[in-house]
Amino acid sequence: MKPNSFLEIEQSHLALAQFYRWFQLYERPLTDERRQHALALLADDVEIQSVNGAFKGHAAFLERLALYDGWKTAHHVQFAAVKPLTPDTLELVGHVLFQNIRPDGNRHSYNLQYDARLALIPDELPVFTSIKLTPTGNVEPVAFEDAYPVNRVSSLLHYWLYCMETHNGDASRMRELYTPEFELYTATAGHLSNWEQVQAWIGALPVRISYSSHHIRDLTVQANADSTFSASFILDWQGISSEGEPMIAELQHEWLVEDNPNNRFAALKNVRIVTTEPFQINYSL
Asked: b/e map of 157-181 (b: 16 or more CB within 10 Å)?
């Protein structure tokens, strides 16, 4: 049976993937495709509360969304934590610096606390059943900084990690997370450049590893002029070998991410993974 600590990290990745996706809706111009992706984040009877009032359901959400036409917004996540409430429900608490420039040119910045609950759905991304936004204080005006690149990459990263932790030897769920042509340089399987090679790599992992988890450190994201993002980060990897031995490693990732805002997720074009601390048994876990 999978240890609870591994299961809770998987669930955290799912919730955070949706949390970062939520902000992206507001940070780029709306299209029909993006509205549909936003609705897919929400339960049919979702309840949302903010200083502007409370409403329930998809139709009310779309009406409220129209109020933000012409706004330029950024959501800088300062903190986010996820914990299970029941076997089917997650609780998420987030602290966000919200910046906006309104159509009349007025600029506002303030801190928000998000209190949300998500319903887990087998083999699908969870959906928000409730979201409460509470202002926790204004901040001094600062230069507007686009948060979309970080939020877009973060949602991709958390969902990719969830897929890596739950694949059971099948890579099919990850296909949408890669561009049609890609380069993947792995720490254990070398250079991969087609999906058959990726499937072979993923298919071989359960022979060596029963469970794994990943903790992200030092994420940096740079927006490029060609609608791509360059991302760099460190993963602290923990796992249980197929022989039942606890293991650790440290991996440096360099990603080139291609973005189409109308897709659910951005896509990996070039991935380079370097082992900075070798895979090793560690009974102190």
From this structure: bbbbbbbbbbbeeebeebeebbbee
112/172 same-domain check: no
Q: Are residues 49 and 130 in the same domain?
A: yes
- Give the integer Cα–Cα distance in Å for 1 and 12: 19
How many separate domains does the chain show? Answer: 2
Provide the CA 232 distance to its chain's centre, in angstroms.
15
CA–CA separation, 261 vs 146, rounded Å? Answer: 15
- Same domain assignment for residues 179 and 125: no
CA distance 276 to 232: 14
User: Residue 14's domain spans which residues?
Assistant: 4-144
Q: What is the pLDDT of residues 143-170, one digit of tens each?
A: 999 999 999 999 999 999 999 999 999 9
Side-chain-side CA neighbours of residue 71 (13 Å): 16
Long-range Cβ contact pairs of 253-257 (< 8 A, separation 24 or more): 254/230, 255/153, 255/229, 255/230, 255/231, 256/228, 256/229, 256/230, 256/231, 257/152, 257/153, 257/156, 257/228, 257/229, 257/230, 257/231
**Whole-prediction pTM:** 0.97
CATH number at residue 60: 3.10.450.50
Q: Give the residues across from 267 on adjacent strands.
A: 258
Each residue of 45-88: pLDDT tens digit? 999 999 889 999 999 999 998 888 889 999 999 999 999 999 99
Distance CA 199, CA 164 (A): 12
Instruction: Give the end of a domain, one of 112, 144, 176.
Output: 144
Task: Mark whether 191 and 67 lie in a shared domain.
Answer: no
* End position of a domain, from candidates 111, 144, 177: 144
